[in-house]
Design a protein that fits this description.
two-stranded antiparallel ribbon, 557 residues, 22-stranded antiparallel barrel, mainly beta
Length: 557
């Protein structure tokens, strides 16, 4: 873990692009194009922390010299992070638009659009001393109507976040508290006769989530052992009396044995309880000791991943160990050839499943997924001219590999289908990007997936091809234009009542976002989403909004 010299607060003048309303409304059945963001970074200076947690990792470039950066994140289908949607992680935009020390950290944002959308957001940050800072953020985004039967497909999302950091020369403490409330409707029903109406209350879903986290990290350069510990408590409750309480703690430590050899330790402990028709106590404990050797030409990491999982209702109590090996060779400056072998128990929770598919029905089965092995190899590189690339191939095997499909009893709700046998997944991925003096950035990512199910009929609703192309253009430090285009192909769904297998149409989506800085305090934005106007179905019977837009103003102070 790298040292934290600064606590950065977003004075966001250019906000979320892509599906601005869709993401914040938590329409997880949709493509989340809003994962692209342009963020105006503001810094709160703290005392110097000369500590690098993971000394083994290469030191990244000076962030103050990196203005706008984007990195495509692989939509992993290895279940460890089973999002089926391409997404983009965003580095900072540190272009100063005003001179002098009066940096505008706080903002208020208001916007509106079609489908009766409303956006309201506020951010306030305060530094009470040289070492202590707090932030608070409130966001409300709603749509009064949707793609099916007007208000019957409306949605709303509320986010409240409070956080703080305290940084000293020898340690850092950070804490956060957040609340999220999602309200939406199961609108995937058959068209009703003209004189018939659907009882909105019977298809309504509300999910409330609370979270608290506390972290501690040593930053003392005089101490040989680097370590950090973080604990978090999360609770979830929906309108149908399902709930989940989850407490997790993570420990990371590294000890230098010599200048080139390090001992590393990662440990996790999760204690959770899920209540639905039955009450489940589900725990997972993981310890992963590894060693790493680093030279000028190559680095090698080897170790063990030992995991114990328990489930009181399913009568599970087992411990498994998986070897871990990573090799990275750099024969020429700027080029890396790498190979990996690892395995794990992938922890699934009600929260993680709802985060991927919000249309889940009641009493869905939650089981962890075993990644028996994952063998991967590839090459990546970059040059000083701004060109970067990566190619990778992976062969993995799973038990309890999961997918989603419409439930037998009610096709408007989804079930989680697990394959208890040996599921094999091959992944081919390629990515290429180019940055031109921070004025223009482009990145193209292509993934191909091949599923060999054991006992399940098919990997329902999982794509076999994803394409993601992102562009960002900065003009005169005032006008910012971003676009993203992506394709999802090869998804199939089945109606278990009729036995009909449906191949879902290819999803092709194009979105634009324009931000313009009017004055030192005011900026304007407009986002045009789903330019092709196709009401595609990411999940069967749930058509998404066609052409939609949202625009507004932001005031910074």
């Amino acid at each position: 873990m790298k040292k934290d010299n600064n606590l950065k607060r977003s004075g966001i003048l250019m906000l979320v692009l892509g599906f601005v309303a869709n993401h914040a409304m938590a329409q997880r059945g949709e493509i989340e194009s809003q994962t692209y963001e342009i963020i105006k970074e503001k810094s709160i200076e703290f005392g110097t922390a000369n500590r690098l947690f993971d000394k083994v990792q290469p030191v990244s470039a000076d962030q103050s010299k990196t203005k706008v950066g984007y990195e495509l994140i692989d939509p992993n289908l290895n279940i460890a992070s089973p999002k089926l949607t391409p997404s983009v992680g965003v580095s900072s935009d540190e272009k100063e638009r005003i001179d002098g020390p009066d940096i505008l950290n706080n903002y208020i944002k208001l916007g509106a659009g079609n489908y009766s959308r409303f956006l309201g957001e506020a951010f306030v940050g305060a530094r009470t001393s040289e070492d202590l800072a707090f932030t608070a953020q409130l966001k409300q985004l709603s749509a009064g109507s949707g793609p099916v039967d007007g208000k019957n497909s409306a949605s709303a999302n509320t986010d409240i976040k409070v956080g703080g950091k305290y940084i000293q020369s020898k340690y850092k403490v950070d804490a956060s508290l957040d609340f999220n409330r999602k309200n939406y409707y199961f609108y995937g029903y058959k068209p009703q006769p003209e004189r018939s109406t659907v009882n909105r209350d019977s298809i309504r879903q509300t999910v409330n989530q609370f979270g608290f986290s506390l972290g501690f990290e040593n930053t003392d350069a005089e101490v040989a052992v680097d370590y950090s510990v973080k604990t978090s408590l999360n609770s979830l409750k929906d309108r149908y009396k399902a709930s989940e309480i989850d407490w997790g703690t993570q420990l990371n430590a590294s000890v230098p044995i010599s200048e080139s050899f390090y001992a590393l330790l990662n440990a996790d402990a999760y204690v959770s309880q899920r209540v639905d028709r039955l009450t489940y106590n589900r725990n997972l404990f993981r310890v992963s000791p590894t060693f790493k050797y680093v030279s000028d030409i190559f680095s090698v990491t080897f170790g063990l991943n030992a995991v114990n999982e328990t489930d009181s209702e399913l009568n599970i109590n087992k411990t498994k160990a998986f070897p871990k090996v990573n090799l990275d060779v750099s024969p020429v400056a700027g080029i890396h050839v790498f190979a990996n072998y690892n395995g794990d128990i992938i922890r699934n929770t009600l929260k993680s499943m709802l985060g991927e598919n919000q249309w889940l029905g009641s009493n869905v089965l939650i089981v962890n997924t075993e990644k028996t092995y994952d063998i991967s190899a590839g090459v990546k590189g970059e040059d000083p001219q701004g060109f970067n690339y990566e190619g990778k191939v992976s062969f993995a095997q799973y038990r309890n590999f999961y997918n989603f499909n419409n439930a037998l009893a009610d096709s408007t709700r989804f079930s989680i289908i697990y394959d208890p046998g040996k599921t094999k997944v091959m992944t081919l991925s390629a990515q290429v990007g180019y940055n031109l003096n921070d004025l223009f950035k482009t990145s193209l990512k292509v993934n191909f997936f091949d599923y060999k199910m054991d006992q399940s009929e098919y990997a329902w609703h999982r794509p076999d091809l994803t394409v993601n192309w992102f562009n960002a253009l900065s003009i005169s430090n005032k006008l910012f234009i971003t676009s993203d285009f992506y394709i999802l192909k090869g998804m199939k769904a089945k109606n278990f009542q009729s036995g009909i297998v449906q191949k879902l149409p290819v999803i092709a989506d194009l979105n634009f976002k324009i931000d313009y800085l009017l004055t030192q305090n005011f900026s304007a934005f407009v986002a045009i989403n789903n330019v092709f106007g196709k009401q595609y179905q990411r999940y069967q019977y749930y058509p998404q909004q066609g052409l939609n837009f949202i625009g507004g103003l932001s005031f910074s102070f």
